[in-house]
Amino acid sequence: MADPVRVLTWNAGEDPDPEAPPEWLVANGLGGFASGTVTGVVTRRYHGLLIAALPVPLGRMVMLEGLTEMLTLPDGHRVRIGADQVGGEGIVADPGHLSEFRQELGLPVWRFDVDGVVVERRLVMLHEQNTILLVWRLVSGDKPVRLSLRPFLHVRPIEDRVSEGGNRGYRVITDGNRHEIAVGHDLPTLKLQLSGRPARLVLDGGGRCEVFYAWEARRGYDCRGGVWYPGHFQVTLTPGQDVVLTASTESWETATALLPREAISQEMNRRRALIAAAHPTLRDGAAAELVIAADSFVITPPRPERVEAGAEGEPIRTV
Questions:
Q1: What is the pLDDT of residues 35-54, one digit of tens each?
Q2: In which element (H, E) is residue 215 found?
Q3: Which residues of 26-54 are buried (b: 16+ CB within 10 A; e: fewer)?
Q4: Which of 6, 22, 136, 304 has the greatest number of beta carbons closer than 10 A?
């Protein structure tokens, strides 16, 4: 029983609607999720790398909306990979050297090719945690390249207008390679941790940018909102060494209970177990993909009564 894989070779010039590229979604079993477009540009209010499912009355909150990625090649040339996260309408069509997008066991993987330097990025969301792991790997290229990551926050309830929440006050708390971004007393902090050597967060003063949400414009809703960034991460990609960015609203103890490779392996095995438990006719190809997709809609809501019900052996589930 092979893992289900779906591959899309990306060519923006052949896409019939470059402002509406295909979309992906990964859920965490709590009602939280990560979602976006293949190119990486945000087009909807529902897009974000970490949309956390928080206890009532907070509900689903956009925490980490996106990031921009810049490679510095061995010759010193700097190249952006992935679609730009901020700016006007025209940039939506630019996939930023994206050569392939695929889903492995329902989890998204991007491949970027910059003149033979090939970098892959994958996203894993941990089950029953508001935690994502973004993993970068230098697939082709015999010399190290530098990777710069600028995370963008737009903390707001998921159903709020995109013009709301742009003026929130943010505060960065750093302890070694653990960074927390506080957004008021009523919300959990966003934890960010980047593995790799050397890896550091450069606090360059931060700033705010405007994002244009193409699908919100099409729907007739307000379509411009402000995002905030604290600075940028810097890390070196070397052959055979993964770089992992952990983003979470959980406690540090929960978010880092396992090493990234262990947490990813655990989630992949959980997905394989779902397929293995399905009817034999649903264990391969598109049918196996549907088994994993169906699991995304079954959640254990993050409510106070969840703990009480769990103690009584009656976990609360909903769709």
A1: 999 988 889 999 999 999 99
A2: helix 214-219
A3: bbbbbbbbbbbbbbbbbbbbbbbbbbbbb
A4: 136
Using omega within 30 degrees of 0 as the cis cutoff, is the peptide bond preceding 108 cis?
no
What the block records as the tokens of 216 is 């919100």
Query: Quick check: 191 and 179 in contact, CB under 8 A?
Result: yes
Distance CA 300, CA 201 (A): 34
Query: Which of 119, 111, 138, 103 has its CA nearest to residue 239?
Result: 138
Nearest to 177 by CA among 229, 222, 244: 244
Q: Match 């679609």 to its residue by tokens.
A: 83
Q: Which two tokens stand for residue 77?
A: 């040339």
Query: Which residue is it, tokens 């880092």?
Result: 256
pLDDT in tens, 260-284: 999 999 999 999 999 999 999 999 9
Those residues whose C-beta lies under 8 Å from the C-beta of residue 138, and which sit 6 or more positions away, are 117, 118, 119, 144, 145, 237, 238, 239, 241
Rounded CA-CA distance 91/110 in Å is 18
Cα–Cα distance between 224 and 63 in angstroms, integer? 17
Q: Give, in degrees to the nearest 5, the angle at Cα 198 between 204 and 49.
A: 65
What gap in Å lies between CA 133 and CA 102, rounded to an integer?
A: 17
Q: Phi and psi for 248 in degrees, rounded to 5?
A: -155, 155
CA 245 to chain centre: 10
Long-range contacts from 262-267, C-beta under 8 angstroms, 24+ separation: 263/124, 263/126, 263/133, 264/124, 264/133, 264/135, 267/107, 267/124, 267/125, 267/126, 267/127
Task: Show the tokens assigned to 298.
Answer: 């079954």
